[in-house]
Design goal:
Keywords: Amino-acid transport, ATP-binding, Cell membrane, Membrane, Nucleotide-binding, Transport. The chain is α/β, with parallel strands linked by helices. The protein has two domains: 161 residues, P-loop containing nucleotide triphosphate hydrolases (Rossmann fold, 3-Layer(aba) Sandwich); 65 residues, no CATH class. The chain contains ten helices and ten strands. The strands form two sheets. The protein has a six-stranded mixed β-sheet with strand order 6-7-8-3-9-10, with helices on both faces. A four-stranded antiparallel β-sheet has the order 2-1-4-5, covered by helices on one side. A hairpin with a 2-residue loop joins strand 9 and strand 10.
């Protein structure tokens, strides 16, 4: 999908730096994400990808500029960012294991007050994720890894996001489950929700993305259309081994 980059980006990030203590893990990050596109952030383990998501979510202190849908977020709290519609599906899923699937999904809507819309969205989620509908009364922690990832993604959608950030969704899952999850992300984008996909599996991420950013040692070193990155000799040598 081609992007009209003359429009205002949904997410604008300029000169963003963040770290732990005095050590910076990411430095001078610039990126733009436009409405209803899938953008992949690729890079090896330890490149700083998850740190970037934590900074964007305002869980981690940072310097620089973050603008979501025209709103400056640099001084915002994580709750304020969530309320404005930027929602993260964290690495490792982080479900409430001793709560039912149904209650986990409702936790995604905890900041919403529109009860009738929440009920409608819940039914829509169960239609989108029939496996979760079958297991709605089951404890989330007793499900398989793939089912838990479905639940984590569905819980994020219950927050009614405008931008959903997905961190290492494929980790430890069977290829057939990963393929299903990627199809769901494409469907989410088709419904108007923007997706920022952070993924170690380079080929997987770029196969569904419109554009991509390559991160190495805390910096963005390359960006462009996903198809161009897949065909780029440097990217293929560094991440695909070809």
């Amino acid at each position: 999908m081609s992007r009209d980059t003359t429009q205002e980006p949904l997410l604008l990030v300029e000169k963003l730096s963040a770290g732990y203590g005095e050590m910076l893990a990411i430095t001078d990050i610039d990126l733009r994400i436009y409405r209803a596109e899938i953008v992949a952030l690729i890079g090896s383990n330890g490149a700083g990808k998850s740190t970037l998501l934590r900074a964007l979510s305002r869980v981690l202190p940072c310097t620089g500029r973050i603008v979501l849908n025209g709103r400056e977020l640099s001084a915002a709290t994580s709750d304020q960012v969530f309320a404005l519609g930027m929602v993260q599906v964290p690495e490792g899923r982080q479900l409430f294991g001793r709560m039912s699937v149904h209650d986990n999904l409702l936790m995604g809507a905890y900041r919403r007050s529109d009860k009738s819309a929440i009920a409608q969205d819940l039914e829509r989620i169960y239609e989108m994720f029939p496996r979760l509908a079958e297991r709605r009364r089951q404890m989330a922690g007793s499900m398989s890894g793939g089912e838990q990832q479905l639940c984590a993604l569905a819980r994020a959608l219950m927050a009614s996001p405008i931008l959903i950030m997905v961190d290492e969704m494929s980790l430890g899952l069977a290829p057939i489950i990963v393929e299903q999850l990627m199809d769901i992300l494409v469907g989410i984008r088709r419904n108007g929700v923007t997706v920022f996909l952070v993924e170690q599996d380079i080929h997987l991420a770029l196969s569904i993305a419109d554009r991509g950013y390559v991160m190495e040692t805390g910096r963005i070193v390359q960006s462009g259309p996903a198809r161009e990155l897949v065909d780029d000799p440097k990217v293929r040598h560094a991440y695909l081994g070809t």
